[in-house]
Amino acid sequence: MLVFPYRVGVFHVNERTIVSAAILDGKAIAQEIRSEVAQQAAEFASAHGRKPCLATVLVGEDPASQVYIRMKHKACEKEGLDSRHHMLPDGATEEQLLEQIAELNADDAVNGILVQLPVPDQINEKKVLDAIDPLKDVDAFHPENVGRIVQGRPRFLPCTPYGIQQMLHRKGIEVSGKHVVVIGRSEIVGKPMAMMLMQRGSELGRESANGTVTVCHSRTADLPGVCRQADILIAAIGVAKFVTADMVKPGAAVIDVGINRTDDGLVGDVDFDAVKEVAGHITPVPGGVGPLTIAMLLHNTLIAARLQAS
What we know:
Blueprint: E1 8-13, E2 16-20, E3 22-23, H1 26-48, E4 53-59, H2 63-79, E5 82-88, H3 94-106, E6 112-115, H4 125-131, H5 143-150, H6 159-170, E7 179-183, H7 190-198, E8 212-216, H8 223-227, E9 232-235, E10 253-256, E11 260-262, E12 265-267, H9 272-275, E13 281-282, H10 290-309
Helix pairs in contact: 1-10, 2-10, 6-7, 6-10
């Protein structure tokens, strides 16, 4: 029987070998991180007489955004962080939003600021992100924080990419020396993910960095062929079930960042049922990367509180 690295769950059915990937449980890993944050947040509160505080801002009444905001505030409450929410109407002007951000920048009781994206069309998203104090930019979208990531000396790391790096680290999946293929070049996931994994080192150690990284996008020639070279394949393009089994190298770790609403419910960018028979590790949707994003937001808020208190 042919054995691939990282592969588990081998069954024999009518002389045919089926190998099923190990499922990477994002909920369990996120809970580990959140428990660590809760303990450290309690220590911070004891030392400074106040809890780390996250402020969120939402413009409009988009149902999905409202759900995400509620999840973030519920997580703060559960893990011992303070949180505040500021709601602006759908017709709010760019000036009104910038004024709200300026107030939060000046409020010493607020450690982290998160403006829920997307914002309405009348507001320039980049101008909004640029207005957040870099020391309170817990999403790590400010140009100063992005530049620090590129230079390998981050203040904060973007929540979703950092959650993925934490997952790989905590499950013993080494990045160093491996070929990592990232499908998608967004400012939120694709670009920072590539930068983080190609660095010489990381806060999690050298084995969680030093990857050979290829970033793919809509203009990539022979995209399936490039994907098949990946030891670690990260899909972040927002197209339901885009990654099929024939695009995956046997034994590869497949990380699915996508969340797509279909008639069959939530699905990822990876055809999970087919790819799990080829991959060595795979994340489910839901329950994979998503919970880690919120866990790392709490982590970044704690780091911001420490920086501002020092």
